[in-house]
Specification:
Layout: H1 18-22, E1 31-36, H2 50-65, E2 69-71, H3 94-110, E3 115-120, H4 126-139, E4 152-157, H5 163-166, H6 180-189, E5 201-202, E6 227-228, H7 234-254
Parallel strand pairs: 1-2, 1-3, 3-4
Antiparallel strand pairs: 5-6
Length: 255
């Protein structure tokens, strides 16, 4: 079924024909939203596609609230060096992911569109996606000219800005990966995909300065969890989901 926003406009890029898209008014004001995820371990209890699902669903929910937003097909693979030794995790190189982001941005520009937001649901993608966007701007700028002044591009990392509001909801010692927060969100978005009987509480060693350094997570985590996944609830999930969607809506309304 075709998903529409509150003004009756199609939400997903893939639902348009090329002619419909080319004839939309004010093409330069349309906002394209690219969900960026990963195929990566998320403990014993969450599916490998958790990051992609969260990014895609939040993007859809935000686009349904804000007119003039078109959601692109999600990128389901990401930079997963640290979790690569958990079975099923798929890692793509920074060069590959960065080039994909660059090519997508340049394609939009070629068609006359001038606003792109990448909504990133996987921590390992942050620097790579940023580099890809910078490369696109560089490629689109003639030598000696202003840096692609007519192309507005943004990278929003899902949990980064709402983090301070989310932290008071946490009952465990910390949160961050396949934890009570991600699990709570998944209990709302895809409860059938969550096996709470397998949810555990486990933490990687380190403090707030050292715990998220790049390392082989399997050497410091048996389950692939950092947090108290067993304390997840749909109630927390609804609260966190609204924070994520509202944060993205706030950006979309500003640009």
């Amino acid at each position: 079924m075709t998903v529409l926003n509150k003004t009756g406009q199609k939400v997903f890029l893939t639902d348009y024909t090329w002619k419909e898209l080319s004839e939309l008014p004010e093409k330069k004001e349309l906002k394209f939203l690219l969900p960026l995820g990963a195929t990566e371990e998320h403990g014993y209890h969450l599916p490998l596609g958790s990051d992609t699902l969260q990014a895609s669903k939040v993007a859809q929910m935000a686009a349904q609230r804000v007119p003039g937003v078109i959601v692109m097909p999600e990128i389901s693979y990401g930079s997963c060096v640290d979790t690569m030794n958990f079975c099923g995790t798929i890692h793509i190189s920074g060069t590959t992911l960065g080039s994909l982001v660059t090519d997508i941005a340049e394609s939009l520009y070629r068609h006359g569109f001038r606003k792109l937001v990448i909504f990133n649901g996987h921590g390992g993608n942050k620097g790579v996606a940023d580099t890809g966007l910078r490369e696109a701007l560089h490629n689109l700028t003639p030598p000696g000219k202003e840096f692609a002044p007519d192309f507005d591009i943004y990278l929003l990392n899902a949990y980064e800005r709402p983090g301070q509001q989310i932290s008071p909801l946490v009952e465990g010692k910390d949160w961050g990966h396949a934890c009570e927060i991600e699990t709570s969100v998944m209990l709302v978005l895809a409860p059938e995909a969550v096996d709470m009987k397998q949810a555990v509480e486990e933490y990687m060693p380190g403090d707030s300065y050292t715990v998220w350094r790049v390392r082989d997570m399997k050497t410091v985590s048996q389950s692939g969890v950092h947090g108290a996944a067993n304390l997840a609830t749909p109630k927390k999930g609804k609260q966190v989901l609204e924070l994520l969607v509202s944060d993205l809506v706030s950006l979309l309304e500003r640009i």
